[in-house]
Amino acid sequence: MNETLPDIVARFRVRQGLFRKELVEASLYELDGYGCVMKTDKVFSPGDTVVLDLVMDMPFDKIRAEGLTGLVTERRKHCSNYFYSIDFVEFDANGNSSLAEKLRRIREVLSKKQSLKSRRSSGSVPGFRQMA
Asked: pTM of the entire structure?
């Protein structure tokens, strides 16, 4: 959990008072077919449920997996924020629903971006030294 995942955020609503809800964006640090890890300053307890919208807006593609119900399974404090491990409930990652397909597409794009980033950061530095 060293770096945030690129170009993706989790959005959810938190009740603020009796009639008001606040839309919150949280950074994601891990994502797989069964859950995610997000970091936010909002306080949840293990056992709480949260409805997430995973939003990946990029110049060439906009993917949104909306309405993922998650169960908070773990909370770790980090400065004034918390890392939450969230398991997706009532969701079949291997299914053929549009939500499963969108989540699969997000994970595929993230995997490609991280692969390109790791190749670029590890492979380009020695190449420059050889040219100099």
From this structure: 0.79
